[in-house]
Amino acid sequence: SYCPMSEPFCECSCVPVGVNSDKHLAPNVDSLLVMFELTRCIEST
Prior knowledge:
Elements: E1 2-3, E2 15-17, E3 23-25, H1 31-43
Antiparallel strand pairs: 1-3, 2-3
């Protein structure tokens, strides 16, 4: 499951992945839960 680097303070607890760190991995988290967290985070801004 991935989260956008532009939302570093979301509760998905992202960690950098890849050489360019263009994607962040949320380990052991269901993709639907990640999407829910991202949506909530975006809506709260």
